[in-house]
Amino acid sequence: MSAREARIRRMKAARARQKLSVPFSAPALAEQGTRLSAAEVEFFSVNGFLIKERLVDQSRTAAELERTWAHLLRHVPPHPDSEWRLDPNDRSTWKDPQWAPMAPHPQAGYYQGRQPREAFGQVIKLHDLGWDDAITDLLPRHPDVRAIARALLGDDLKETECTRGVYGVFPPAEKTELTGELLGPHTDQVCQQLNACLYLDDVEPRNGGFTVYPGSHRIMFGAHEREANFSPTSEYGARMREVIDTIEPYELCAPQGSVIFWHGRTVHSVGLHAGEDIRWALFADFAHDRPLLDPDAHRAIGQYEWFKDTKLFREDYPVTDDMWRHWKLSAG
Q1: Which pLDDT belongs to residue 41?
Q2: Helix, strand or coil for residue 262?
Q3: Nearest-angstrom CA–CA distance, 170 and 332
Q4: What is the Cα–Cα distance from 43 to 213, expressed in whole angstroms?
Q5: Mean pLDDT over the full length of the chain
Q6: Mean pLDDT over residues 267-276, rounded?
Q7: What radius of gyration do the chain's Cα atoms show?
Q8: Strands 268-269 and 211-212
């Protein structure tokens, strides 16, 4: 057996051991008259995520979902050899989409490493929508969302320029047995402090809900040299295996307009989908306002991701036993 074949066998064996996610809804932790209760802050600290249900007005969210549909139909064509056509009003067309083949990701220039629009299998990623002011105002610039980000991360937040865009997870052609092997647990690169996800429509169980490994942020924080910049140590792989082998992942279910906040070191995955709906979500990032590396410096170390608002800090703090020493974590 070659080294490559052995590595593939180990990867398959590891995936086969992955735990199946369980649907999870927000516990009743909010307190009337407070934006963020002490119980919510504690939940975030322990679990690495927090769901704020219906934080964004549902009429605004529905309007942006309509615009997202229009953008998708205008810019992402079906496969030329397929009779499949996507129709927002015909749910039967949502299953097993047949997209036109994607062009290779650019190797240079502004879009280096990632096409503005990605469509593969059941997933679409409309990164180009991320620079739309209406979309940005809906999540990272929304006053209630930003107030919670300040309460968690701190008052000195970087001004938001963009979001990552809208991601859609379409239903499969046929229902299959769901297993943990279908999940793709990972952490994000570049600079990760606090992230947010807005559900543009209701997300019911087993309909692709954003999936997190609760408590994994406390394990993975120590697998880096620096607090926020992607800086994995030699322990990174072992700690990822610890997370995957020991933590039962949560598939986050919530109504339209709900916002999920999660710590940047939290292990997460696209959710399992065996339902009938499209899971529509808008993703954004928050970080402290500190000097950043320029784009060429990011390219030089393989960390250039144009579609993310957060960039590598020019100087980042070393990891210590206190993962919250530069956070606010304030209720009120």
Answers
A1: 98
A2: strand
A3: 38
A4: 14
A5: 95
A6: 96
A7: 20
A8: antiparallel
User: Would you give the distance in Å from CA 152 to the centre of its chain?
Assistant: 18
Measure Cα distances from 161 to 257, 264, 285, 306 in Å. Answer: 21, 19, 10, 11
User: CA 332 to CA 330: how far, in whole Å?
Assistant: 7
Task: Decide if pLDDT at 174 tops 90.
Answer: no
CA distances from 81 to 85, 294, 318 (A): 11, 43, 53
Residue range 39-57: mean pLDDT, rounded: 98
The model carries a pTM of 0.95
Tokens 């590598």, located at residue: 312
Q: How far apart are CA 282 and CA 256, in angstroms?
A: 11
CA–CA dist 67, 166 (Å, integer): 11
Task: State in words which class domain 37-300 has.
Answer: mainly beta
Q: Which helix (H) or strand (E) holds 284?
A: strand 279-286
Rounded to 5°, the CA angle 251-285-240 comes to 50
Burial label for 38, CB within 10 Å (0-12, 13-18, 19+), is: middle
* Residue in 286, 212, 224, 259 with CA at minimum distance from that of residue 52: 259
284: closest CA among 70, 76, 135, 120? 135
Strand partners, 283: 165, 197
**Coil, strand or helix at 61:** helix
Q: In b/e form, how buried is each residue of 111-144, taking b as 16+ CB within 10 angstroms?
A: eebbbbbbbeebbbbbbbbbebeebbebbbbbee
What is d(CA 258, CA 197) in angstroms, rounded to the nearest whole number?
A: 8
- Above 70 in pLDDT, residue 13? no
Boundaries of every domain in the chain = 37-300
Give the CA angle between residues 146, 247, 172 to the nearest 5°.
Answer: 75
Residue 188: closest CA among 230, 160, 154, 226 = 230
**What residue has token string 């559900």?**
199
